[in-house]
């Protein structure tokens, strides 16, 4: 039988089903009567004819020179390049490509080193199945702890880290090491004089050491909140209401000192703490408002009396000066006449007497 192979074709010659050799472009004659057959395929992409094991096909020099074969170890991953360009991730452990018209390359990357190195590019990462690696992102002001099989390996700062999951379990924890605020809102407290009040307290703190914290404490927020609540109740409850209102700053300092004494327990550093608001019961507010109104009213009365006394004293001093100094008296008289004249539309005088004298007579100031 006649076989004609094009330039981009290859043929697998079989006799009685047994591989004999590979042929390329040209014209060939093989007798079917003698058990020959030829399987023809294009030399592009992967080799389709794999009925015969690669180990047998690779014994043919023509086949070996025309193909690229790659096997990816269990502890590695592979990336397929065509003509120098990354095209795909190797999902299987064995590949055979026609390497005649397109140049294939299989790049193998070991997963023995747990952390993914710089030889793995972003483009390669985009092709790797997510289940094969763990990615950890650590932000500004954060600390990350990396564990292999639940054993702490290292502490890392800001950045993005990736780890192969091969033969090990990779986990991580990220801790915010920046200053954080804890607000205790509406904390109910019974004062020493048995008055129920509510209080808002604010605390600023930060984690002291991520490794120590992770090794000793499973959760922070709720235990820390409860601890601050107890401190507030313990300290504020020792004071009467009047003392609390008068010594707010001093009590805030006591709360801060008590919290500092508990830092080791929570692996934190308290930076500040203070009382923001003291919320009184409605009836207490009414009483205090009444007292405040009475105090302000009394203060206003005192000020009013002082002003009256000062005004009277000023008038008395003025009267004494005018009594002792006739010229000053006349000047004061002229001042008042001027004010009166400003209010009068028209005044008639004659020339027999002085104008001032006539005006004085009109208003009864001159005898």
UniProtKB/TrEMBL annotation:
InterPro entries: Band-7_stomatin-like (IPR043202), Band_7 (IPR001107), Band_7/SPFH_dom_sf (IPR036013), Stomatin_HflK_fam (IPR001972)
SMART domains for the chain: PHB
Transmembrane segments: none
Highest taxon of source: Bacteria
GO cellular component, one term: plasma membrane
Record domain Band: where: 133-292
Entry similarity comment: Belongs to the band 7/mec-2 family.
The protein, known as: Slipin family protein
Lineage summary: Bacteria, Bacillati, Bacillota, Clostridia, Lachnospirales
């Amino acid at each position: 039988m006649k076989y004609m192979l094009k330039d981009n074709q290859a043929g697998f010659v079989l006799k009685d089903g047994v591989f004999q050799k590979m042929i390329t472009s040209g014209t060939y004659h093989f007798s079917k009567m003698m058990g020959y057959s030829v399987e023809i395929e294009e030399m592009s992409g992967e080799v389709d004819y794999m009925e015969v094991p690669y180990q047998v096909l690779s014994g043919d020099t023509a086949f070996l020179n025309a193909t690229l074969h790659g096997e990816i170890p269990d502890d590695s991953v592979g990336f397929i390049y065509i003509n120098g360009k990354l095209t795909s991730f190797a999902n299987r452990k064995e590949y055979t490509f026609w390497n005649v018209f397109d140049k294939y390359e299989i790049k193998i990357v070991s997963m023995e080193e747990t952390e993914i190195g710089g030889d793995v590019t972003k483009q390669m990462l985009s092709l790797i199945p997510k289940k094969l690696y763990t990615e950890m992102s650590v932000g500004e002001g954060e600390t990350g702890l990396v564990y292999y099989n639940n054993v702490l390996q290292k502490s890392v700062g800001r950045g993005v880290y990736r780890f192969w999951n091969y033969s090990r379990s990779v986990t991580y924890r990220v801790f915010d090491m920046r200053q954080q605020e804890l607000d205790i809102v509406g904390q109910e407290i019974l004062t020493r004089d048995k008055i129920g009040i509510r209080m808002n307290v604010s605390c600023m703190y930060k984690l002291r050491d991520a490794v120590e914290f992770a090794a000793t404490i499973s959760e922070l927020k709720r235990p820390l909140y409860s601890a601050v609540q107890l401190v507030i109740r313990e300290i504020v409850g020792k004071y009467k209401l009047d003392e609390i209102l008068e010594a707010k700053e001093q009590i805030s300092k006591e709360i801060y000192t008590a919290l500092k004494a508990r830092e080791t327990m929570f692996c934190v550093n308290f930076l500040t703490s203070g009382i923001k608001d003291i919320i009184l019961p409605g009836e207490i507010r009414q009483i205090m408002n009444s007292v405040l109104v009475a105090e302000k009213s009394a203060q206003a009365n005192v000020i009013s009396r002082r002003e009256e006394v000062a005004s009277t004293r000023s008038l008395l001093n003025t009267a004494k000066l005018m009594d002792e100094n006739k010229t000053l008296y006349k000047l004061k008289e002229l001042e008042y006449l001027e004010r009166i004249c400003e209010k009068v539309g028209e005044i008639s005088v004659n020339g027999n007497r002085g104008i001032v004298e006539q005006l004085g007579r009109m208003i009864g100031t001159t005898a």
